[in-house]
Structure formats: C-alpha cells, structure tokens
Write a structure and sequence with these properties.
single chain; alpha/beta; TIM Barrel; 7-stranded mixed beta sheet; 13 helices
Length: about 450
C-alpha cells in the first residue's frame, strides 16, 4: 500500500469513525473546609468534596459531604468538606455525586452502523479494538458497569479480562458471550448465502442448538470458556434478517434444559423475548430476566412479579432508525414493535415487576445510554428516582453485585459520577456527566485535582 492509497472502510467501523479508529449550577451553600485530626492518610487516598450526594438512589440525598476513597474502594462518607493533610482532593462542591451507572444490556462488538457482511472483512483484532472503543465511550458517559449480552467471538472475553487486570481502562463487564438460539433464529446468522454463512459462522460457533441435550451442552461450553451468564433468544428478533416473526423459537424442552443447566452451574439466564408466547414460556422455565418483553401481557407481568423475574425493557432502541435502511422483513417487524412501544414498562410498573436499566446499546448508539432515562419517566411512567434506582441499586441486584456496586457505601467500589443539577427533579441531567470515577480512578474530570 503506497502513501496515497486508503484502506477501504471497515464493515464494523463504517464511515465517519476516525475518532474511534484513532483510539488504538452550584447546588448548596458549602461550609468552609475543615481539617480532621487523624493518622496520616494512605498514599492512594482521594477526597471527593460533593455539593450533594445520592448515596442510595431512591432515598433522600445527603447535603455537602466528603467521600473518602482508599485505593479502589470507598472508605467513608463524612458530612461537610473535610481535609486530610497529604490527601488528593477533587472539588465537586457544585455538583451532585451519585453511584456509577449500570447498563444491563449492551453489545460492544457492533453498532447501528455495523454491516451484515462485516465478519467477512473484520479480523478478531478489529472486533477487539472496536469493542474497546465502545466500552471507553460507555464508561466516559458514566456507565461504570455493564452486562454484555451477546458479542462476536471471544474478543469481548479478552476485553473483560484486560479491564479486570488493569491493562485497559473500561467499565466492569459481565458477559454471556454468544447467544443461544434455534438454528436460523435471532442468535444465529441469516441473510447471507449458504456458502458464506457456513464459512463465516460455523454451526458450533453461533450458539445454535436443537433439543434439550444439545442446548444443555451449549450452556456448559459457555461456562467452560468464561461466560458470566447465559443469554438466549427465546423468540425472533426485530433486527435479524429472518422473517419468521417474533413468536416463540426455543421449545419448552429446550428452555427448561438451558435454565436447569445454567442454574446448576451458578449462572443466571437472560432471555431475549419479544412475542407474548415466548415471554410467557421463558418465565415459566425460570429465566432470571426478560430482555425487551415487547409484547408483555398482564398475565405474564403478574407471573413475573410473583416469581421475581426481572424486566430489562430496552426502551427507545428504534429511535432514529429509518425504515428505508432496513430490509422489508425488518421493516415489518419494526412497525409491529413501534405499535406497542412502552406497553412493557407500563405493565411492569403497574404490577411491580423488578425493572433493571438496559438499553441494547449496539442496536442503539454507544455512549448515549442515558437517553433511556427520559423514556422510562415518560413511558412508565416512573419517577426519576425510580429510573435512577433501576440503573444502580436494582441493576446491581440483577447482576448479583449488590455488595460491590450500586450505592455509595463504605467497602464498595469507588464507582462515582457527578452531574450539574438534581436528577430527582430532571432525570435528563444524567445525559451530561461531568466527572466519572471508576474503582477510585478518575476517568473524566471537570477541573483539576489538587495535591
């Protein structure tokens, strides 16, 4: 390649993504700071001087406070703005500080611009770098933890492990790896000719399975190779190329085998489910969460509330999508989904179903995850406090991580964000995060830290 040639646009990156490729007001009157006699602080002590603190979303905020961070954990929260000689401090006296946000439904290995044929062009290294770019964008938007429920190959595993080991900076990632589906279903590849499909997506690569025995095997394989949970596609999908509708795909036998096997291995099951019959069958089988639940009905909503099944409603995932850009099969499904938009969350609110925040970022743009808060408030209707709780306290509970994340408490990870304004009054302030701290490390900072 000479100096004047340009490499063709990658299928996954698309056009206009040079930045991604280049990747490889005051709230309350504040009293004067006061020194607190104490032993010399640790070298890694960080003081966060907040104007207000929503320590437990859904509960009353604290006034001016100092959050003391030691290493990657919160050591204490003190009233007022204290100083510890030698400790570094961040001035957020004009901001509301709250726990890092959690998105329980993302796909880092693709975006709305990803082409159907991208796997014919992209290498695993391309996918890994692309996923890292999306993870970075998500973290900078204030989402310090995510659940990735379906990404290509094992690049997402490598990203998760690199973040956990401190080699890369990104959100905490809990992942399912490849989704389990019927042959030709939403989790399997379709839309390409047979020769191309078999070359790019071998049968045992896609997670497709038939019958209880084979589906149980796929669960065990996912666990063997490092999945944190199991993701299944119980029904057809809106954006997949197959035109077999949005009804139930996995049979009751297959669903029961998947759930029983996963739970025996200590893994939760997240079920992509749109059509009512598939949602109901998934709930009966004992899945832990319904993803989307577009055609949720009253009877199933009541069953979910009784069983403790979570709903991850992924509102607004079709916002801004132009039908003309989709195939006729996808256009028909998009129209069907738009006709019932919001019914799932309204039923969940009415029957007190557990709701966890999840956006389907990947289908929707990465880094714009917080736009869903306004949908939850408008369509639920949920209070801003309840919507925020769904992305913190409740999302942590779904992940089984309540002891580590979701609130600002001593002993938990120092995952913190700051916004200008009160998210209890205007939830859209969460779309503009000024400071992000993950595990005690400052990721995004408005202003400078003082020594």
């Amino acid at each position: 390649m000479n100096g004047t040639e340009k490499r063709p646009a990658r299928g996954r990156w698309g056009r206009g993504s040079a930045a991604a490729v280049a990747l490889a007001a005051g709230l309350l009157a504040v009293p004067a700071a006061r020194a607190v006699p104490a032993e010399a602080p640790r070298a890694d002590t960080l003081l966060i001087h907040a104007g207000a603190v929503i320590a437990v979303p859904g509960e009353r905020p604290l006034g001016p406070s100092t959050i003391i961070v030691e290493g990657d954990r919160i050591a204490a929260i003190r009233a007022g703005h204290i100083e510890l000689p030698g400790a570094r401090a961040i001035d957020l006296k004009g901001r509301t500080v709250l726990p890092g946000l959690i998105d329980t439904h993302v796909h880092f290995s693709f975006s709305p611009e990803t082409k159907l044929w991208s796997a014919a062009i992209d290498t695993p290294e391309d996918v890994a770098l692309f996923a890292f770019a999306n993870a970075k964008r998500t973290l900078e938007a204030g989402f310090t933890t995510v659940r990735d429920v379906g990404s290509d190959g094992y690049s997402i595993h490598a990203l998760r492990d690199a973040v956990n080991e401190g080699a890369l900076v990104g959100p905490r990632i809990f992942l399912s790896g490849t989704s389990l589906s019927i042959v030709g279903g939403h989790g399997d590849m379709s839309g390409l000719n047979r020769k191309t499909t078999e070359a790019l997506y071998p049968y045992d690569y896609t997670g497709a399975c038939t019958g209880g025995v084979e589906c149980a095997l796929r669960v065990r394989e996912a666990a063997k190779y490092g999945a944190d949970l199991i993701k299944i596609t119980s029904t057809g999908g809106i954006m997949s190329q197959q035109a077999r509708g949005l009804g139930q795909h996995l049979s009751d036998e297959e669903l029961n085998a998947i759930v029983t096997t996963a739970h025996s291995l200590g893994l939760k099951v997240a079920a992509h489910a749109h059509g009512g019959a598939g949602v109901a069958a998934s709930v009966r089988a004992g899945v832990d969460s319904i993803e989307h639940g577009t055609w949720l009905d009253e009877e199933t909503a009541q069953a979910m509330a009784k069983r403790g099944t979570w709903l991850v409603p992924t509102l607004g995932l079709l916002d801004g999508r132009k039908d003309a850009d989709a195939t006729p099969e996808v256009q028909a499904k998009m129209a069907e989904a738009r006709a019932v938009a919001g019914r799932n969350i309204r039923l969940a609110v009415r029957y007190k179903v557990n709701i966890a925040f999840g956006t389907d970022a990947g289908v929707s743009p990465h880094g714009q995850n917080a736009r869903q808060f306004r949908h939850m408030v408008e369509q639920g209707p949920m209070t801003p406090a309840a919507a925020l709780r769904a992305a913190t306290v409740d999302a942590a509970a779904l992940l089984g991580q309540s002891g580590n994340i979701g609130t600002i408490e001593a002993g938990k990870f120092a995952d913190l964000i700051a916004v200008a304004g009160d998210p209890y009054r205007d939830v859209t302030v969460l779309e503009h995060v000024s400071t992000v701290i993950k595990g005690g490390r400052v990721i995004v900072q408005e202003g400078a830290a003082s020594p």
